[in-house]
Each structure stands twice: as C-alpha cells, then as structure tokens.
Fold:
Amino acid sequence: MLLGAPGSGKGTQAPALGRRLGLPHVATGDLFRAAVRDGSPVGLEARRYMDRGQLVPDDITIRMLLDRLAQRDAAKGVVLDGFPRNRAQAETLDEVLREQGGKVELAVEIDVPAEELVHRLSGRWVCRDNGHVYNEASNPPRSPGKCDLDGSPLIQREDDKAETIRNRMAVTLSSLRDVVAYYRSTGVLRQINGVQPIDRVTAELLAIFPADADAETDGSPDPKAPTVTDARV
Ligand code: AMP
Structure:
C-alpha cells in the first residue's frame, strides 16, 4: 500500500511498484473514474462527491474496493493506492483481510512536507482556450504565460490557487496523519522521502519490497483489470 498526499507522487510510483511485484495496481480514484465513465449506479453516486472534491462515503468506497479485490487477478495481492483515506477505512480493510486470512503487508508513506505539496500543486496552469495543462516546475511552457499548442494565455484554476489548496490540504493531511499513525501502531509502516527526483524515490520504494523473481517476466495484464494512468500529479 502506498500512502501520500495529493502531489506526493504516489500515483506516479504505484504503477512501477505494481510492475515490479507482478501485482495489479488498484487505485480507488481510478475505480471511481471508471464507474463514472460507465454511468453505473456507484459512478452516479460517487460523482456527486468527487465533483465537490469531497471523499465518497466509506460504505460505497469499501464495497467498491472489496468487489475489485475479489477479482481473480487480485488473488495474490495488489498494490493499493488512494485507500485508506481515513482510520475507519483502514480498520475495515484490516478486519476484512483478517477474515480472509490476508493482511496489509507494508504501508509505505511517500513523505512530502505540506508547503512543498502546496508549491507543487499551485504550480499548475491551464490554457484559457483548450485547458492544456502545464506545471511551472515539471512541465513549463516554451514561452512563459502562453500555451505551446494554441497560443492562448495560461490561467490558474480557482481551486489551484495557493490559499484554496492550503485549506483543502489541511483536511487531507489530518486524515493522512491518522492513517499513518494507525499503520505505525500495527507495525507495517515504512516512510520514504518524497522530495527527491522521481527515479530516486522509485529506487528507494522498490528496495523496501522483496522482489518476486517471477514478477517482471510474468507481467501480462489481466484484460478485465481497469486500466491505470502512468503519471498523475
Ligand atoms: P484520487 O484520484 O485518489 O485523488 O481520487 C479521486 C476522488 O475519488 C477523490 O477526490 C474522492 O472523491 C474519491 N476517492 C478516491 N479514493 C477514495 C477513498 N479511499 N475514500 C473516499 N473517496 C475516495
């Protein structure tokens, strides 16, 4: 399991870890986005919360996750990303896994200080005409303030402004701290420094997990598994 705030690089690292371990990468955010795309009842319900930037209620989230974990390709385990987001979710997951004879093997927190997270997220700019996305630090436009693709001015979305991000972040970080404390108490927590180049973080992450000798060669994806995005902020 990977733990980290939005902007910590968790969504970028999780697929690499899944490939290394030969396990599916299961991200609850991806499951919800797929449900929304499919127009399923879960998707319709979840969307009301996602659009407002709020957490989807625990009962819906947990049911959806357990359905995914019951699929055949998850039998040997998964790399979990985006779950749990609070202590109640963490405790429920442990209970369910215990009943099934499983457990959370390791919970790795990618640790990035709050101010750095605000800096990373507030560096995002989008172009006025078509919403093409740039980032001051990691993906700047060729000429400052102007879209490479259509030349329109770059603007900052209301919810990407530093003050708004700081407010949203306070709530998120407080739940994350609860989850981190929970896994510290159960003895499975590891922490790595997320303020390093991406490949350095990947190397430290992979070093924590015992490599499965068959994993990289036996990496054929399950056609029924949801697709994942390889790089998310
Ligand atoms: P993410 O891609 O992880 O940022 O998730 C996108 C959205 O899905 C979140 O803003 C929540 O609305 C919802 N979501 C994802 N994971 C969870 C979770 N574990 N508990 C509640 N809501 C979640």
The CA atoms of residues 106 and 188 lie 5 Å apart.
